[in-house]
Amino acid sequence: MREVNRQEHIIDATDVALGRLASQIAILLMGKNKPTFVRHLDEGDSVVVENIKYIKITGDKKNNKVYYSHSQHPGGLKTIKLKDLIDKKGLPEVLRKAVYGMLPTNKLRNERMKRLIIK
């Protein structure tokens, strides 16, 4: 097995749009910035995000963006608006959901998410 050299990237979230920040984080977690990138190996770095309370949410997303979840039972659709999610769980959860959605859906996704630290 190859030895992985992981770096720690510190990102300042002050006045950065949520989607742009999430895509930068996803690239670093996957290791796409490295010349040794291979899709089936987890060679990404760890990411520390600071000043999350100063993140920029553009447009009217706080009132219009809706997150959906379903319990797989009839009538089990649950919705929550971005504004309510921020009030209930905070901005770190919103960033986690955005990054989680940008990572590929495979067995490496949860291991990559463990390397995301939000302060």
Commentary on this structure:
Helix 1 (18-30) packs across helix 4. The model has no long low-confidence stretch (mean pLDDT 96). The protein has 5 helices and 5 strands; from the N terminus they run βαβαββαααβ. Helices cover 35% and strands 19% of the residues. The protein has a domain at 8-58 and 91-118: Ribosomal protein L13 (Ribosomal Protein L13p, Chain: A, Alpha-Beta Complex), CATH 3.90.1180. The protein is globular. By secondary structure, it is α/β, with parallel strands linked by helices. Strands 1-2-5 form a 3-stranded parallel sheet, covered by helices on one side. The longest helix has 13 residues, at 18-30.
Radius of gyration: 16 Å
Mean pLDDT: 96
Order of helices and strands: EHEHEEHHHE
Name the structural class: alpha/beta
Taken from the alpha-carbon principal axes, the silhouette is globular
Low-confidence segments, ≥5 residues, pLDDT <50?
none
CATH class of the domain at 8-58 and 91-118: Alpha Beta
Distance between the termini: 33 Å
For the biggest β-sheet, the strand order reads: 1-2-5
Number of E strands: 5
CATH-defined superfamily of the domain at 8-58 and 91-118: Ribosomal protein L13
Fraction of residues in β-strands: 15-25%
Please report the number of helical segments: 5
Looking at the overall shape, the CATH architecture of the domain at 8-58 and 91-118 is Alpha-Beta Complex
Reported by name, the CATH topology of the domain at 8-58 and 91-118 is Ribosomal Protein L13p, Chain: A
Sheet of most strands? 3 strands, parallel
Helicity, in percent?
25-40%
